[in-house]
Write a structure and sequence with these properties.
single chain; 386 residues; mainly alpha; name from scop; 2 domains; four-stranded mixed sheet; 14 helices; elongated
Length: 386
């Protein structure tokens, strides 16, 4: 079976797939939503303006058909008279035009958002294919659009038939009315018809907008193989890998720095290395290394320790030994038990120190020869050379 078969496209689209479709100008669009919004906003405007709007429009229309003797005797004045009437009529309908224009722009982005894409208007070779044209003509989207067109035509026809039946007698009398009363009645009938039509369009839009969203997401579905290929492509890009590693380091460092406040002692180099240890006297285990860092990270650990009143103990050899031999959240090596125990005992003694009692002398932890490291992580030889 072909990978392009819709039955294979069972997976939801990825963010990259949706972004690529958006860049190409393909979005979930409902043409019915802007149409319904425009008609409804125009109806609301006309309703808010009331009969004054139609009466004023009828007055402008009537005055445009009557001329004084001077205008009739001077044909050169007719263009100015017509221009004045057109300007008055334009200023009258201008508020409705502006409101409907704004509503149309806002409603057009109601389903898929706002987008201007050059790719959407560029010619595509695929659109010139007769086979692709036949698919568009007889596909599901074409059938859906045909159904909507039939439904809209039926609604408009139903509204017109209903209005004619309800106001048949008034329509018959309109021909014998004066110009202004006739135009006012026509405006009332048009407004009522537009209200019914607007409600019909709103019903269609409420059905069409969710359907367009569903149809768009269905078209964007991907096969399992496409998702695998996309993941491989993204993970294979050096900048993505670097970004993932950087983000992982940031998250790991953030979690590690949060553990510094729970440490019992920070052993430092004193500047280049810093390790945070925690020890539970009630447990049988060895001290645990909670955090470690060099240079800038070591400075951050020391600063965090100061903020939370954690004791800082300077022992360059022990700090380097712990840094190069112990991983995060792991117990210290057995060879360093005695040296670490000396430091822990000293720190706990400081915490329990009472007024008037002399503190114990600061220990000088002795590090086994097998645990002596240089600043670049190399073991120190018995002769002292690296």
């Amino acid at each position: 079976m072909s990978s392009d078969d819709s039955s294979d496209r069972t997976e939801q689209p990825t963010a990259r797939r949706l972004k690529r479709a958006r860049d190409e100008g393909e979005l979930a669009r409902s043409a019915e939503l802007p149409a319904a919004a425009v008609v409804m906003s125009a109806i609301l405007m006309l309703s808010a303006l009331g009969g004054i709007w139609f009466k004023q429009l009828a007055a402008y229309f009537a005055s445009g058909l009557s001329f004084d003797r001077k205008t009739l005797e001077t044909p050169a004045l007719l263009p100015a008279a017509f221009a004045t009437q057109l300007l008055h009529a334009f200023m009258l309908v201008l508020p409705v035009m502006l409101v409907t224009m704004v509503v149309a722009i806002i409603a057009s982005g109601g389903t898929g958002g706002f987008l201007f894409s050059i790719k959407a208007i560029l010619p595509k070779v695929s659109k010139l294919s007769p086979l692709a044209g036949l698919k568009r003509m007889f596909g599901m989207r074409a059938a859906t659009e045909l159904l909507k067109a039939i439904l809209k035509l039926s609604l408009v026809t139903s509204v017109l038939v209903m209005m004619v039946e309800r106001h048949f007698s008034e329509l018959m009398l309109m021909g014998s009315m004066g110009l202004q009363p006739g135009l006012a009645l026509a405006g009332t009938l048009i407004t009522e018809s537009a209200i019914w039509l607007a409600f019909s369009l709103v019903v269609i839009a409420l059905i069409d907008a969710p359907y367009q969203r569903y149809a768009f997401m269905k078209r964007m579905r991907m096969t399992k193989q496409e998702i695998k290929d996309e993941m491989k492509d993204m993970e294979g890009r050096p900048e993505v890998k670097a970004q993932i590693r950087r983000r992982q380091r940031e998250m790991a460092n953030s979690r590690m720095m949060q553990k510094v406040r729970d440490a019992d002692v920070i052993i430092t180099n004193p500047e280049h290395f810093a390790v945070a240890l925690s020890y539970d006297p009630s447990a049988d285990g060895a001290p645990i290394l909670l955090a470690k860092g060099s240079d800038h990270m070591a400075a951050l650990i020391r600063e965090e320790a100061k903020n939370h009143s954690v004791e800082i103990f300077s022992s360059p050899q022990l700090a380097r030994a712990l840094y190069f031999t112990t991983e995060l959240d792991q117990p210290v090596p057995e060879a360093l038990y005695y040296a670490v125990a000396q430091v822990i005992a000293y720190v706990f003694g400081l915490a329990q120190l009472r007024p008037g009692v002399a503190p114990m002398s600061k220990p000088m932890p002795k590090i086994p020869a097998s645990m002596l490291f240089t600043a670049d992580g190399k073991l120190v030889t018995p002769e002292g050379a690296t």
